[in-house]
Design a protein that fits this description.
The structure holds two protein chains of two kinds. By secondary structure, chain A is an all-alpha fold. In chain A, 60% of the residues lie in helices and 1% in strands. Chain A has helices spanning 3-6, 25-30, 35-65, 75-78, 89-125, 133-152, 183-212, 225-256, 280-314, 321-334, 350-362, 364-378, 387-410, 412-418, 422-452, 458-484, 504-534, 600-607, 618-626; strands spanning 82-83, 86-87, 267-268, 271-272. In chain A, the strands form two sheets. Chain A has a two-stranded antiparallel sheet with strand order 1-2. In chain A, strands 3-4 form a two-stranded antiparallel sheet. In chain A, a hairpin with a 2-residue loop joins strand 1 (82-83) and strand 2. The longest helix of chain A is centred in the first third of the chain and has 37 residues, at 89-125. Chain A starts with a helix and ends with a helix. In chain B, a hairpin with a 2-residue loop joins strand 1 and strand 2. Helix content of chain B is 43%, strand content 16%. In chain B, the strands form two sheets. Chain B has a five-stranded mixed beta sheet, with no helix packed on it. Chain B starts with a helix and ends with a helix. The model of chain B is unreliable at 346-361 (pLDDT under 50). Chain B is elongated. In chain B, helix 2 packs antiparallel against helix 3 (79-112). In chain B, 39% of the residues are buried. Classes of the chains: A mainly alpha, B alpha+beta. Chains A and B meet through helix 5, strand 3, helix 9, helix 10 and helix 11 of A and helix 1, helix 2, helix 3, helix 4 and strand 7 of B.
Chain lengths: 627, 361
């Protein structure tokens, strides 16, 4: 098999179906156990949730940007939630709560990790499917049920949960406190229980698959960075989501069974409650034990996807592969140790604040290293601006912009002023929301040809990128200014305070930018669904990439590879290797076929006949031979 | 009519996008008749756009930052606020520098190393020295920033000075309550089970320290003296936030939180300083607490020490305003309660000012 053979031209007849059994419509498209179909289910569901979450944000941006305007025209849609031409303040809180919940959990966790873990893990490690196809299917359907419950909660009379996506007690426990703490909150909790179960099932499957089902030669040192990222994401989810599960369980007990895990000394609605001995701070510790790693659960897959796409399109090896893996490991570990930096002003012991400040600064180190490595990967590259590459560059840009502001909030003294202001909103929307979402879009544009066998329209992809990229900056960068001025988040109106009134025009500007940015997503939706059916046929390897998934047929069937699964001989980043005929050498090409480009140690391996020995690490084999 | 025009404009926008899409698709089919390679003329355009975005974006940031700089952080009006601001700006300079350099390199490399036919990218998989260097340099920078932050944090969160004026702040949906300890300098006990329509804070009148406690409709504090806020909540979590003082601390039901500070300027001085005769220090709620979260505005009045003492001395105790609560005072303390409530207890030292010197936390 030569390098040139990999660069296949598109051909309808090259579609090889290796499906080993006939599937009905239901088993193929609904209750499918094929990881690729499940990935598509996650993808489409994630996109649907992103649209819903985005629309909710437009509603509250309307209120914030144009507090004096008459919004009676929304009455047919929102009914009683519009009062005298204004959004009801309580519904406003419900909007921000649902927006946060949907975006964090349903889009950036399930949509991103669910899609790409399912799609890429078997394809990039050389497996026929996940370790447990049935459990994989179950994980999607639990996510779907979680989504249905969350969606329904938006249509009940008292409204959905309304205490912020963090649902801090006592607000989330006491129905007297807010109408969104009634049935809406109960549904939120039930939905999260389903969601966590789904995430854990998925995570166990991903980890098991990566450890056990790698093809011959695919040692851990040869894993693509996407797989490493998804592996760490799954581990992180597995370690932290159960803690949120415990937190929600205790919350349910406090709400329904009269316990006092989080409640004490409360007088509300003219009544002194009997609860004593609990602490709302306990919930915060439990919540942020998941809540902070959740940031990394959202962004780690983006790290992997972006690393892969930058290397492919810069036509260069990813710079510092080991460091990239190492930093992801360190981030995974450290992300579990920084949760209380969200609680500097919660009343927690200030000494604890010092410890968590230190950990928060330390986690910035691996993040910095990643940025430098991406920059060096671009340096002296030969960059192809595919839409995926543009979004990858955009992701790095957002990660830098949002990352540097992390140093402000890591510093507990500065955080006193910035905590719970729009500075925080700006920070996490750039570093977690936008960067992760751009990672998601990078992945969609890059792997669309393998998912659907067709190409997305390049021009529309470019247009989508530039409008979204500029739009996101115009929405979130100005929020830093408002936050510095002290404007607290989740404020329905800010004109009552002289100190917050300064940036009225800027708030309107942000809202307009948000509407345009959302509008730009229509281009993506059109491109996505149109290309799915009418896009040009894709070559098997349109980006001339090295990883295993591009060695499958144009539109791989259940089982992924017809016949034998290919062996792996080299890492995934042999791009532009000196002496090579092409600027890429897929992982399946033995060193014996590329004598002109082999490095000295690789030449030595060839001379010793070792490269064909797969399943073992070449370096260790070399050392063994040297003894 | 306006809405119709917006709808039509939006529709036209979609049609234009679709036509552009169709045109480019047709052109590509006519020009090549087959699927194109990765690279087309758009590559050059996108590379140029990278530079345009870099220059335009940075220009916009610097222009607006300069224009809005006077509104960035509200004027600091507390001693520790100056420390926080100093840290803020040091962090801003460091991160601003890193931001400009890294974003500059990102967009410049994207432009400079755009695809060119016949060129091969540089095979450069690792450089240990370089990677170690850019691990160590940020580490040292972050450690320095951590030490600076820790020093301020420790000072801000240290125990309040013994002579601090103690004030209790209680958050509730959707209002703030403040309570002063009265002439004895000690806040009386409270119990949430004693709260009723009148005894809003659940003051416990079996404790003699409660007899002279008084409440106020604004938060009055003296300039230049340490003030200790004892913060609690009745119902849900609130957060005391006074932006000009760089002061924020959650009010949590079932526990007491604290924050101490020294105000640098009186309200009058701030009015002159800002050229705004209507200026007031404002307290807000920073933790979402329900429907009226956004409306928990409370005025903070900073006075010269003498004025504050005068104001303090003239306040009526809560008990004297609500004499019916004498009935819940234990019989043996009733006389003392009457005296203390009126402020004429014999043991009371001569002046409020001297009293305030002896208020202990």
């Amino acid at each position: 098999m030569s390098v040139q053979n990999i660069n296949q031209k598109p051909d309808e007849h090259s579609v090889v179906s290796d499906e080993h059994h006939e599937d009905s419509f239901i088993t193929k498209y609904i209750f499918s156990t094929d990881h690729k179909m499940i990935a598509k289910q996650y993808l489409v569901t994630g996109i649907m949730w992103a649209v819903i979450g985005g629309l909710l944000s437009l509603l509250f941006r309307l209120q914030l940007g144009f507090p004096e305007s008459n919004m009676n025209w929304l009455e047919p849609l929102l009914g009683d939630w519009i009062q005298n031409g204004k959004i009801d303040p309580e519904f406003y809180l419900a909007l921000v709560t649902m927006h946060g919940t949907i975006m964090v959990f349903f889009v950036l966790t399930a949509g991103l990790s669910g899609t790409f873990s399912n799609f890429l893990i078997p394809l990039q490690i050389g497996a026929r499917d996940m370790a447990s196809g049935f459990m994989n299917m179950l994980s999607y359907w639990l996510f779907f049920v979680a989504g249905v419950i969350m969606f329904l909660s938006m249509f009940i009379e008292t409204g959905p949960a309304a205490g912020g996506w963090t649902v801090y007690p006592p607000l989330s426990v006491l129905p007297q406190a807010i109408s969104g703490s009634g049935l809406g909150m109960t549904l939120w909790l039930i939905s999260m229980v389903f969601f966590i179960a789904s995430t854990l099932m998925g995570g166990i499957n991903y980890i098991t698959t990566i450890i056990n089902l790698r093809t011959r030669g695919m040692s851990f040192k040869k894993l693509p960075l996407t797989i490493w990222a998804l592996f760490f994401t799954a581990i992180l989810g597995l370690l932290t989501f159960p803690v949120l599960f415990a937190a929600t369980l205790l919350l349910i007990f406090d709400r329904s069974f009269g316990t006092s895990f989080y409640l004490s000394d409360i007088y509300i609605a003219g009544e002194a409650l009997s609860n004593v001995g609990g602490s709302p701070i306990l919930y915060q510790h439990l919540f942020w034990f998941l809540g902070h790693p959740e940031v990394y659960i959202a962004i780690l897959p983006a790290f992997g996807i972006v690393s892969e796409v930058i290397a492919t399109n810069a036509r260069k090896p990813i710079f510092g592969y080991l460091a990239m893996v190492g930093t992801m490991f360190v981030i995974t570990f450290l992300s579990i140790t920084v949760w209380a930096h969200h609680m500097f002003v919660s009343g927690m012991n200030p000494f604890l604040g010092s410890i968590f400040m230190l950990a928060s600064f330390i986690i910035a180190v691996p993040s910095s290293v990643k940025v430098f490595n991406w920059l060096t990967t671009l340096w002296r590259g030969n960059i192809h601006f595919t839409p995926a590459m543009l979004f990858a560059i955009g992701m790095v840009s957002f990660f830098i912009a949002g990352g540097v502001t992390g140093l402000f909030v890591a510093n507990s003294a500065i955080d006193i002023q910035l905590h719970d202001t729009y500075f925080i909103v700006a920070h996490f929307h750039l570093v977690m929301g936008s960067a992760s979402f751009f990672g998601f879009l990078t992945g969609v544009y890059h792997w669309f040809p393998k998912m659907f066998g067709r190409m997305m329209h390049r021009g529309l992809g470019h247009l989508h990128f530039w409008l979204t990229f500029a739009g996101v900056y115009l929405v979130f960068f100005p929020m830093h200014y408002i936050g510095m001025a002290g404007f607290p988040r989740r404020y329905y109106s800010f004109t009552g305070f002289e100190v917050f009134r300064t940036f009225v025009d800027l708030n309107a500007f942000i809202s307009i930018a948000a509407f345009i940015t959302f509008g730009a997503q229509i281009i993506f939706l059109f491109n996505f669904f149109y290309s799915m059916y009418r896009g040009r046929l894709a070559p098997a390897n349109p980006w001339r990439s090295n990883t295993l998934e591009w060695t499958t047929p144009r539109f791989p069937g259940h089982g992924n590879w017809p016949g034998e699964i290919p062996k792996v001989y080299r890492w995934a980043y042999d791009y532009s290797k000196p002496g090579a005929q092409e600027d890429f050498i897929p992982q399946t090409i033995p060193f014996s076929q590329t004598p002109e480009s082999n490095l000295p140690e690789e030449t030595k391996l060839v001379s010793e006949g070792l490269p064909e020995v797969v399943g073992e690490d070449l370096q260790s084999k070399l050392k063994e031979k040297g003894k | 009519m306006e809405k119709l025009l917006i709808a039509i404009s939006f529709g036209l926008f979609l049609i234009i996008i679709y036509l552009v899409f169709r045109t480019t698709t047709l052109i590509s089919l006519i020009s090549k008749g087959e699927i194109k390679e990765n690279i087309d003329s758009s590559n050059q355009l996108n590379a140029v756009m990278m530079i345009v975005f870099l220059v335009g974006g940075m220009g916009l940031i610097f222009w607006y930052s300069n224009r809005a700089s006077e509104h960035f952080l509200p004027e600091s009006a507390s001693v520790h606020g100056d420390w926080i601001d100093q840290l803020f700006w040091i962090t801003m300079y460091i991160t601003g520098f890193v931001f400009v350099i890294t974003q500059g390199l990102l967009f410049y490399f994207s432009y400079r190393y755009r695809y060119r036919p016949g060129r091969k990218a540089f095979f450069y998989p690792y450089n240990n020295k370089l990677e170690i260097t850019w691990t160590i340099v940020p580490t040292i920078t972050f450690i320095v920033m951590f030490i600076a932050g820790l020093s301020s944090w420790n000072k801000i969160t240290s125990k309040a000075p013994d002579n601090a004026v103690v004030i209790e702040i209680v958050g509730q949906q959707f209002n703030w309550n403040v309570r002063y300890p009265g002439e004895d300098g000690t806040l009386g006990e409270h119990d949430y089970k004693l709260i009723d329509a009148v005894n809003n804070l659940g003051l416990d009148f079996t404790d003699r320290a409660s007899f002279d406690d008084f409440t106020a409709l604004q938060l009055h504090i003296p300039k230049g003296k340490p003030v200790l806020l004892k913060i609690r909540a009745k119902d849900v979590i609130h957060s005391v936030y006074i932006p000009h003082f760089r002061l924020k601390m959650d009010a949590v039901p079932g526990m007491m939180t604290r924050f101490h500070f020294v105000a640098k300027y009186s309200t009058q001085e701030m009015r002159q300083k800002l050229g705004n005769p209507d200026f007031n220090f404002e307290m807000a709620c920073a933790e979402v607490c329900g429907r009226g979260h956004f409306a928990m505005r409370f005025i903070v009045v900073v006075e010269e020490e003498e004025d504050f003492n005068e104001w303090y001395k003239n306040q009526e105790s809560w008990l004297s305003k609500n004499p019916e609560y004498l009935s819940v005072v234990p019989d043996e303390l009733k006389e003392l309660a009457k005296k203390k409530a009126k402020g004429d207890e014999e043991s009371t030292p001569g002046s409020t000012a001297s009293l305030l010197e002896n208020i202990y936390f």
